[in-house]
Design brief:
37% helix, 6-stranded antiparallel β-sheet, 3 helices, Sensory transduction regulator, alpha+beta, 142 residues, single chain
Length: 142
């Protein structure tokens, strides 16, 4: 096993331990972690960007198949500027609009408790945003 593979495996193991305090966590064939926070599916991956800089990347699918509208895109853009943990994205698809929240951060050296706290801040933000989007008149999801 290469040093990079060992480092990313160690970080994913730490993330799994931190998340298992709150969720059932599944390890995919490629090593990525997947879980659901309320109705929000999430995935965690680890990657080495440069020697000494290994990050965890958390992706949450906030909502999907929302009716496409410029108002919804603007609403998400406004929320993105409100200092959320992560980057909000809107993707237009044939079935409407999907909203994602992504957050990547250097995680080497973090212990279980602070790592779990940071991950939960992000997924809680995703869940709160999902609730807000689905209660707006133009927001409905599957």
């Amino acid at each position: 096993m290469t040093q990079e593979a060992a480092t990313t495996a160690r970080l994913l193991t730490a993330a799994k331990e931190a998340l298992e305090t709150y969720h059932d966590v599944h390890v995919d064939d490629d090593g990525a972690l997947t879980f659901r926070h309320a109705d929000v599916p999430c995935a965690v991956q680890a990657m080495q960007l440069a020697e000494g800089l290994t990050v965890l990347s958390l992706s949450c699918v906030v909502a999907w198949d929302l009716p496409a509208s410029d108002e919804l895109a603007q609403s998400v853009a406004e929320r993105a500027g409100q200092g959320l943990f992560g980057t909000l994205g809107v993707v237009r698809t044939a079935r409407g609009m999907d909203v994602t929240l992504r957050y990547a951060f250097p995680a080497e050296g973090m212990t279980t408790t602070p790592l779990g706290t940071l991950l939960m801040l992000v997924v809680a933000t995703a869940s709160q945003l999902r609730t807000e989007l689905l209660t707006e008149p133009e927001g409905t999801s599957k």
